[in-house]
What we know:
By secondary structure, this protein is an alpha+beta fold. It contains 13 helices and ten strands. It folds into two domains: 2-51 and 278-405, no CATH class; 111-232, no CATH class. The protein starts with a helix and ends with a helix.
Amino acid sequence: MRFLVNTHLHLAIDxxxxxxxxxxxxxxxxxxxxxxxxxxxSLTGGINQLISTNSSKDNANLILVxxxxxxxxxxxxxxxxxxxxxxxxxxxxxxxxESIKKVxxxxxxxxxxxxxxxxxxxGKAYQSTTIVATNQDLKDILNxxxxxxxFLDYSLRENVAVLGxxxxxQVFGTTEAxxxxxxxxxxxxxxxxxxxxxxxxxxxxxxxxDNAIMINAKFASTFESSVQIQQIDVRTETTDAVDGAKxxxxxxxxxAKNGDNNYRIITGNENIHPAGSLLSIVSGMxxxxxxxxxxxxxxxxxxxxxxxxxxxxxxxxxxxxxxASSSHILLQFLFESVILSVIGGLMGFILGYIFxxxxxxxxxxxxxxxxxxxxxTGFVSLAVGVVFGVYPALKAACKDPITxxxxxx
Length: 409
């Protein structure tokens, strides 16, 4: 049996070598499909790794409070991702922040109110600037490091702002932007601090703080009709205090809202960016779409194998005449199809990671490398080779040896 398998392998490899150009083009069809799948899985895996850092042990004592629209979790996430005004009816207020501060075991509380608005510097307008209304506790909750200046301090001055590293470079042309001023919402703000470089655009707050401006939420409420709070970040004194603080926060908010529980309290592994819960679904859908190209590649292999069977009809007749059975002929051509598909899968695996690494040069996350992706690549390649190679192999195996011997090209 082992000798027979080796014979089939050698015959298949020799046949593929004789038609190198055709072999390469057929394998390329599979390679494109596999490369697409590898690219999607590696990049989404990299994003997942980036997101999972937000639920690490460093955030084990973190509690998030978000407004609830009464929908199922997946529907709520979709709304957050697709709607531009999903928080226009936020149930959270600055009074809720004060209520949470009074809860035993709570160390820091910071509201997150995001808006995209225009700011003006020396008469020049910068559109769609990310403004985050928050408070001084955010620095401790997110462990911000300052490149210069200080963080928000409402007791010293109300109209102050802290800029992300990239934001400071973008609007002022330098990170040494302390004491600079800008106008927003009809108010003049003075920059009192600039953050160190942060490479974390995907986080549980849904804010790229590197490209944002932070102002005092309490001051923002004096010139805006209402501050829509998308989230309240809460840091407890210890990890053991999380469960008790969660229950106490729920009681405090329920009492303040007269039993209207239009909010969600999130702890543990749920402390991720809203897109994280939808990422697996999106990844699966993209992989399914990419698999269509594998079908196209498989049809290409089937077509080439049918041509090969037609060209080698006399060879099949000779082999059967000297004792080869139909099963031997079937295995010979099936091996050839599988080898062709595996070559394409290996090419696709390498190409997929090359493209993934190239994309990672302009994105904040590295591609994810795992044995699972290699295993998926191998399984898919084998499956395509078998599925699309069966029919040509059966056609070769069923040929009549007498008729085949009379065939001339």
